[in-house]
């Protein structure tokens, strides 16, 4: 076990690639005994009595130094990662001489420890002992050679069997990380469902399925020797009758599903999860915030499968109140008690290559202002985000704002012939066709609602336009994350917000929450 003292956070683990504290992310038994409290704090008896009376507890974060106070101590201290913040903390023990610079160990609440390969320079070096050779070759063929930060930090933990919460920027490689884990544990000779990936939208599910099938493809000579890995897309709007026949004939190895379709199959006992080894919940914060899906998700985590028989992975670029979420995962038994929160670059929630700006205009000049921006920027590929139509507007018989904007651009903007639409009210085939046309290459403009903001990977996108401001800072983060998605690229990408003067304070609030600066643009 290695511990350290970095001057800012006395409880920080001395591991260069990890930005976490063992008291924050691991459930430790915290004593409430006054003798221990006085010994650690070095306070006078009077001060000790006052502090014991008020029971001020602080939650410590290694970067933001944020904390909150509770009037009462935790009811179950063995499950909470709370600690006192002391003026004169006792430093962690020094590293053992037997540990080499290449391998360090994290402080854990349990007796086990996890080795982290800090100096691995390629994905192959990290994965070679775990992932089949044909999968690694496919990974390299499509250009994934160097590991991203989240892959470098998370993969050793994932391969060790730990439950993990992957919390990293959009486009940082979380999907590839959990897919590599899946390929390391599945046995294609068994005709059972061994991995389930739950996604919030059909679009994201289609994308994950495509990547999983690409990685699973075997060379012809191997395909004759062994069974290949099959991947089923069990998504809303799919042909469930065909899926039923497939599941009854020979269950797939991996299932990528939306929660509604998955639970339908589980309730009818067409799909069984007794052999499931890995459960992935992608965009986990969105799933838990959706009133339509949260009850089904809780049921999946606690009733349809047991946390003791599976490895559980949650992934998202945004997990508000993540310390509380880690606690809930343990207390609600969604994950095992030694779950690891891998939080990559928490002081910079969005990619550094993004340039944020805003322009202020009147309500009746928004279309013309957007047109001027497009003519000035001449983007090769961009997404224009539009707010959903209100119920009042629908009842009045008004055209959806997305449709109005597409019609305006098709008649007024001559710089781009390919202008596509993507919104919830479109049928599934039309939505799939729009994304397919966008992915075919060339210049494009996609006018979309927030359905395109979660997980959709369009790496050629260079410009984002918020025609309507998103409702929350989290929505802003995910919209902005549709660009700047090429790992290790320094190409500058732009996020532009079209505002009315009374909306400026909303954008300022997002700037404060997400730690970015937005520059005013004068047209």
TrEMBL record:
<feature type="domain" description="Helicase ATP-binding">
    <location>
        <begin position="155"/>
        <end position="337"/>
    </location>
</feature>
<dbReference type="InterPro" id="IPR027417">
    <property type="entry name" value="P-loop_NTPase"/>
</dbReference>
<protein>
    <recommendedName>
        <fullName>RNA helicase</fullName>
        <ecNumber>3.6.4.13</ecNumber>
    </recommendedName>
</protein>
<keyword id="KW-0547">Nucleotide-binding</keyword>
<keyword id="KW-0067">ATP-binding</keyword>
<dbReference type="Pfam" id="PF00271">
    <property type="entry name" value="Helicase_C"/>
</dbReference>
<dbReference type="GO" id="GO:0005524">
    <property type="term" value="F:ATP binding"/>
</dbReference>
<dbReference type="InterPro" id="IPR044742">
    <property type="entry name" value="DEAD/DEAH_RhlB"/>
</dbReference>
<dbReference type="GO" id="GO:0003723">
    <property type="term" value="F:RNA binding"/>
</dbReference>
<feature type="short sequence motif" description="Q motif">
    <location>
        <begin position="124"/>
        <end position="152"/>
    </location>
</feature>
<feature type="domain" description="DEAD-box RNA helicase Q">
    <location>
        <begin position="124"/>
        <end position="152"/>
    </location>
</feature>
<dbReference type="InterPro" id="IPR011545">
    <property type="entry name" value="DEAD/DEAH_box_helicase_dom"/>
</dbReference>
<dbReference type="InterPro" id="IPR014001">
    <property type="entry name" value="Helicase_ATP-bd"/>
</dbReference>
<dbReference type="InterPro" id="IPR050547">
    <property type="entry name" value="DEAD_box_RNA_helicases"/>
</dbReference>
<keyword id="KW-0347">Helicase</keyword>
<dbReference type="InterPro" id="IPR001650">
    <property type="entry name" value="Helicase_C-like"/>
</dbReference>
<dbReference type="InterPro" id="IPR014014">
    <property type="entry name" value="RNA_helicase_DEAD_Q_motif"/>
</dbReference>
<keyword id="KW-0378">Hydrolase</keyword>
<dbReference type="GO" id="GO:0003724">
    <property type="term" value="F:RNA helicase activity"/>
</dbReference>
<dbReference type="GO" id="GO:0016787">
    <property type="term" value="F:hydrolase activity"/>
</dbReference>
<dbReference type="Pfam" id="PF00270">
    <property type="entry name" value="DEAD"/>
</dbReference>
<feature type="domain" description="Helicase C-terminal">
    <location>
        <begin position="366"/>
        <end position="523"/>
    </location>
</feature>
